[in-house]
Each structure stands twice: as C-alpha cells, then as structure tokens.
Amino acid sequence: MGLPEKIKKIEDDLLKTQVNKKTEHHVGLLRAKLARLKSEQEEQQSRRSGSSVGYDVKKSGDATVVLIGLPSVGKSTLLNRLTNAKSKVASYKFTTLEVVPGMMEYNGARIQVLDLPGIIKGASSGRGLGKRVLAVARSADLVLFIVDVFQPEARGLLERELRTTGIRVDQEPPNVVIEPTSGGGITVTKLTRMTRMTEELVKEILRVYDVNSARVMVREDIDDERLVDVLLGNRVYAPSLTVMNKIDLVNTGFTTELSKKLKYKFVPISAEGNVNVEALKEEIYKRLDFVRIYMRRRTGETDFEEPMIVKNGSTVLQICDKVHRGMKEDFRYALVWGKSVRFGGQRVGIAHKLMDQDVLTIVTK
Ligand SMILES: Nc1nc2c(ncn2[C@@H]2O[C@H](COP(=O)(O)OP(=O)(O)O)[C@@H](O)[C@H]2O)c(=O)[nH]1
Ligand SMILES: [Mg+2]
Prior knowledge:
There is one protein chain. This protein is of the alpha/beta class. The protein has three domains: 3-52 and 174-232, no CATH class; 63-169 and 236-288, Rossmann fold (3-Layer(aba) Sandwich); 290-364, Ubiquitin-like (UB roll). The protein has eleven helices and 16 strands. It has helices at residues 3-16, 24-48, 75-82, 130-137, 154-164, 199-208, 224-232, 252-261, 277-288, 316-323, 327-330, and strands at 63-69, 100-106, 109-115, 142-148, 167-169, 176-180, 186-190, 214-218, 236-238, 240-245, 267-268, 290-296, 302-311, 331-337, 346-348, 359-364. Strands 2-3-1-4-10-11 form a six-stranded mixed beta sheet, with helices on both faces. Strand 7, helix 6 and strand 8 form a beta-alpha-beta unit. The N and C termini lie far apart (63 Å). Residues 75-76, 95-96 line the site of magnesium ion.
C-alpha cells in the first residue's frame, strides 16, 4: 500500500468511528498515525518538486506581520494604508499573485508587512497557490486575519488552513519534554493532572513515531494533537489579531452586534476609507510585544531617537546580536539604567533581561 492509500484508509476509519470515552484511545492513535503519514507525504512532495515550498521572502525589519484573508477582503488596500508599499488593488479576485512586502514604521519600530495572495478553502492541501502562500506565513511574528464585514465566519476557515500547514495561532508551544534514552522503554513523568489522554496512549503515540525509549516530562494537560506537535517538531507558534474590514458599508449597530455574536475579538476598520487604521497600527505594535532599548555611548550621550527594538523578554544578548554578529564574542559587561535594574548604571551580564525604555551601554574587549 502506498502513502495515499494508507492515508485514505485511516481517514475512512476515523470517519466511521464515533468519538466517545470508549473509542478515545483508538481515535487518538489513528490521528497520530495520520499526522505521521501526512508529514511523510509532504516531505515526498517537496522532494519531488525539487525545492522547498514557499516564496522567497527575506525577513527584514524588527518583526514580520502577514495578512491572511480570503480574496477581495481588502488585504492589498490595507497594506497600502499601513506601509509604503504599492500593492495592486482590484475589484476582481486573485489580484495579488505574489507576495508583496511593505514596511510600516511605528513608535520607532520597523515592521515588515506581507500581503499574501488570498487564501481559499483547501489551500493547505494544495489548491491554487495555497501551499506556497501558507509556507510564507510560517515566518510571521504576528498573523493578521482580515475578514470582510459580511463574511466574518471566514475567520475559522483561515485558522484551520493555517493549522493544517503547521502554524498554531494564539497557542503556547506544548509544555512537554521528550528525552530519548538508549534503553529502558518509555517512562512518563506527570507534573500535572492528565485528563485528555492516558499515559498508555502517550506511550503508544511515541511508538508510532519510532520513539521506543525515552523520558517524557508532561507539564501540561496535553491532548494527542499537541503531543504529535511535539513529536513532529516543525510547528510554529504565532499570536494573531483579527481585522474586520469594510465597516464603511454598515452602520455602527451592525458592528456592535457582530462583536456580541462572534467568539473572537476584532479591530473594525475601513481600509479604503482610512477609518481606524491608526488604532490598528497601535494594536499591531502592542500585540508584537516589543520593548525599546536606548543605547548610551561610553562617552555618555544616549540615542533617544532610534531605539533598538526587540521582543519583550529579550536579554542583552539579543541586543548584541542586533548591533552586530560578532559582538557577543567581545562582550565584557553592560551598564543599565531603567526599570530592569535596582539602581542606575548597574553592571549586568549578557543574560540580563531588559525592560521597556531601559538605557544600555555595552562594554566590549
Ligand atoms: N467599501 C470598501 N471597499 C473596500 C475596502 N477595502 C477594500 N475595498 C475594496 O475591495 C476590493 C478588493 O480589495 P483588495 O485590496 O484588492 O482585496 P484583496 O484581494 O484582499 O487584496 C477593491 O475593490 C477595494 O477597493 C473598504 O474598507 N471598504
Ligand atoms: Mg490583493
């Protein structure tokens, strides 16, 4: 049996099986097998096509945001509003045939925004340009879902297409560690209560992935899908923000109703009418969770004009890497003024965690 037949067989089996307490184990195992076969198929396909899937888009700026939406929801119009780019806007579908990058400047941060061709249902399984488009989204620090005010239900479809491509939005990576060992079978250490799967299922799924001997540390109430995510190891995790576009076509009552009805939060805008776009920029900036670090030269002046922009939680090391690649080798110590230290001018090491608006001097050899 080839891969497609094997996949089909499991899919049929899954469709036939009702999910309940009794079949839980069986279903979990089938899903894990299916995920493995699909990832093998994926690999085969990309090997056959000779190149890795995806457009070549160079990441630049302090962060990358991708616009994800159905055709004609206003992605290109929004890109032009947010950035210096000139993306073609048209009233017919599929106008954006390639990835168009733009740069958005906000609060001193340079944020790369990518306009992708519209996603359609089934994109992740290779319909249209889908797969290549979705591969670009893997580089996102933030996913911006764009929905049309008359098609708000598309949000679910978009998220599912990303899921199928291995992109998890608004999820933390699973808190599970798998340490392969040279023998002794699989031992599971539960550091929390497990309600979604049994220890036995954990072991069986590991064996599906040819892990026969390992120490597994479970620190969250994991389910079979998230365990598979750990085993496949190629998932990416990004926060998201949803934009409701074309609100100029409805009255405010309509939008209020939507926000009550829908399960997700959104930022209402009109890209064409330039309504609420500034507020959206601020939301994007906030969601990216940046901190600004002001560099102070050893001579004493501080550059308050162009801060270094890094992710919240970054250390002095990330700043060194941003200044230039070899800097960490020559690092001796740093001096910090601001919220992350107890007193101004405190001496810290390279692993020191910085906070917003800290002033930093790096002393090298
Ligand atoms: N009424 C209204 N039309 C919009 C808005 N934004 C975009 N459009 C129109 O929607 C159509 C598709 O826009 P486009 O940016 O090409 O969508 P894309 O396919 O998602 O890139 C164009 O005719 C735009 O002028 C908006 O905020 N309000
Ligand atoms: Mg477009």
